[in-house]
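Bug #2210: token dump truncated for [histone H3]-lysine(4) N-trimethyltransferase?
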Amino acid sequence: MTKGGMESVEVFTSEGKGRGLKAQKEFLPGDVIFAEPAYAAVVFDSLTHLICHTCFKRQERLHRCGQCKFAYYCDRTCQRAAWLNHKNECSAIKRHGKAPTENIRLAARIMWKIEREGSGLSEGCLVSIDDLQNHVDSFGEEEKKELRADVESFLEFWPPQSQQFGLQFISHIFGVINCNGFTLSDQRGLQAVGVGIFPNLCQANHDCWPNCTVIFNNGNHEAVRSMFHTQMRIELRALSKISPGDELTVAYVDFLNVSEERRKQLKKQYYFDCTCEHCKKQIKDDLMLAVKEGEGKPSAETVKEVIQFSKDTLEKINKARMEGLYHEVVKMCRECLKKQEPVLGDTNIYLLRILSIASEVLSYLQMFEEAAEYAKRMVDGYMKIYHPNNAQLGMAVMRAGVTHWHAGLIEAGHGLICKAYAILLITHGPSHPITKDLEVMRVQTEMELRMFQQNEFMYYKMREAALKNQKIHVMPEPSNETSPSLFHKKE
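Reproduced locally. Full output below:
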């Protein structure tokens, strides 16, 4: 079954997994298999005044809707593009007196679209909203309670003059949002800013070692007054060579966890048992739990103690990060590393987690040399664990490259930036803002590297002068969340 720009894929019934997507032709790494606009999408409650409600870009000055005083937009183009989806919402917010939560707003947007177009197949969709999985039958008591509260709030918000839907259908829509809501990120891809429904993407099954990745593209603001200006969409991109007839898979959770933990997470969030090759054979689990080999090999008891200490420390670190106590975080990381280093192997995930936090926070505090040392070890570990074309790996390598560059380690910095660029060209594509940023860094570090190779002494003199004259580029404040996960789960 193919429809409107979806000719290269088909929906099929996958054994034991329900529906899935299959390639109709060959794809190479970096190819866009399909791009899909959101069926409906909303900005998170906490960011409604900071993010454009049409293209989901973070902007300094946003225009506010004069009617409901709730929605914000980059400019008139984004505001005009939003009107079809915002018109009903706008009057409902005015009538209700305030905007409801993101879940209610997303459900309402879906219902208004159904009211306009019907619930059958819409243009470019392989499946209808009616046919999406809702997993309501698998809900636990707590989730059922939340569902009832959502349905109640929805009925209070839903205008009497709009089409009225039955309770069962409303529950279906909330179930769909619960297990199929896709996380939308800002233009740099670093912060989760909203949630959307993409029916075609929902058909792609999970694999812990997938052959595709999903990237959120916010449209192109340089293309003013063109259809691309606000054309926010997701892109399904190939990570490896895909042959016609191969199933297209994406990872719903980050790979950096042992198979048992990933399976628990998938069962809890998406209600299925993962049977992928990596989980069945526990591939890479040995690396993720590696301990020091050789003469002084630690006892099982010591390993257990150190891992427990690491878990406790990670909890304390999260608390300190929430409170912005970054020097405290660094102190805890150093203490933890001292305990881990004689016991854990260099690909052990507990060691890698501490190295990642330490390098990020030290960079923010501008202690670049120590940060670079930790970042290098983190990247060396990641390279042995992640798929070579993994977006999270690409972002980590980029961060390590920037840290080395700031530390004045120009050769290593340039090398890492080039490596990150090669990965992100495949995962994000050449026109994504983050890839463009990297291209600029690549050119800059290449120029500095040539200068360094010609005359080291002069390079350091010029670098010193430049740092005195300009404020050093401050790294972004460390975020308390890991990279946005693929599907948004209501907390």
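Output looks complete on our side. The mean pLDDT is 89. Marking as cannot-reproduce; reopen if the truncation happens again.
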